[in-house]
Design goal:
This is DUF4142 domain-containing protein. The chain has helices at residues 2-35, 58-84, 88-114, 125-134, 139-165, 170-194; strands at residues 38-41, 44-47. The relative contact order is 0.12. Strands 1-2 form a two-stranded antiparallel sheet. The chain has 6 helices and 2 strands, in the order H-E-E-H-H-H-H-H.
Length: 198
C-alpha cells in the first residue's frame, strides 16, 4: 500500500513538473511572439515593440495622411491631364504636377515610415469617382475643369501645409515648410492659367 502511494506521488509530481515546464515554454513563446510581432507600415514590416509609438502627435499623423491623399490626387489628375488636355500650357503644368508631387509623395512615405504612421496607398471612393468622371472629359472643357480644380485643391493644400509647418516635430516641420514653397508656386501658376479659361 505504501509502495502504491509512493508511486502515485512520484507520478503526480512528474506530471506537475512537466505541466510547469510546458507553461514556461508557452509563456516564453508568447513573449517571443509579442516581441517579434510585426506590423505593416507603408508596405514595410516594423517590429511590434517599435510600432507602439509614432513619435508624432495626432495632428502630425493626420497631416501626413491628408497630405498623402492630396498628393495622390494631384498625381492621378496630372496623368489624366497629360492624356486629355488640349492646351499645351495645361499639359506642361500637369507634367510639373506629376514630377513635383511624385517626388513629394516619395519623401512623405519615407517620413511616414520613419515616424511609423500608416498613410493610404489609394484614394477615397469620392476622389476616385471624380477622377473617373474626368477621364471622360476632353479638350477645352477638360482644360478649364482641371485648372479650376488645381486652383481650389492647391489653396486647400496651402492651408494644410501651413498647419504642418506649426507641428512640434522638427522633421515634419522642415518637410512641410520646404514642400509648402513648391505648392505656393503651383498655386500661383494655376491661378495664372485659370485667367485664360474664364
Amino acid at each position: 500500500m505504501k509502495k502504491i502511494f509512493l508511486v502515485g506521488l512520484a507520478m503526480s509530481s512528474t506530471i506537475a513538473f512537466q505541466a510547469c515546464q510546458s507553461a514556461d515554454k508557452k509563456s516564453s513563446t508568447m513573449k517571443d511572439s509579442v516581441i517579434g510581432d510585426t506590423t505593416m507600415v507603408n508596405g514595410v514590416h516594423v517590429l511590434g515593440s517599435e510600432s507602439t509609438s509614432t513619435g508624432l502627435d495626432d495632428e502630425g499623423g493626420t497631416f501626413l495622411k491628408k497630405a498623402s491623399i492630396g498628393g495622390l490626387m494631384e498625381i492621378e489628375a496630372a496623368k489624366i491631364a497629360l492624356a486629355n488636355a488640349k492646351s499645351a500650357d495645361v499639359k506642361s503644368f500637369a507634367e510639373q504636377m506629376l514630377t513635383d508631387h511624385t517626388k513629394a509623395n516619395k519623401e512623405l512615405k519615407e517620413l511616414a515610415l520613419k515616424k511609423k504612421v500608416i498613410t493610404p496607398d489609394g484614394l477615397p471612393a469620392e476622389e476616385q469617382i471624380h477622377l473617373d468622371a474626368m477621364k471622360k472629359m476632353t479638350g477645352p472643357d477638360f482644360d478649364k475643369h482641371y485648372i479650376d480644380m488645381m486652383v481650389t485643391d492647391h489653396e486647400q493644400t496651402v492651408k494644410l501645409f501651413e498647419q504642418g509647418k506649426q507641428n512640434k516635430d522638427a522633421e515634419l516641420k522642415a518637410w512641410a515648410t520646404s514642400t509648402l514653397a513648391i505648392i505656393e508656386t503651383h498655386t500661383k501658376k494655376a491661378k495664372e492659367l485659370a485667367l485664360k479659361f474664364k
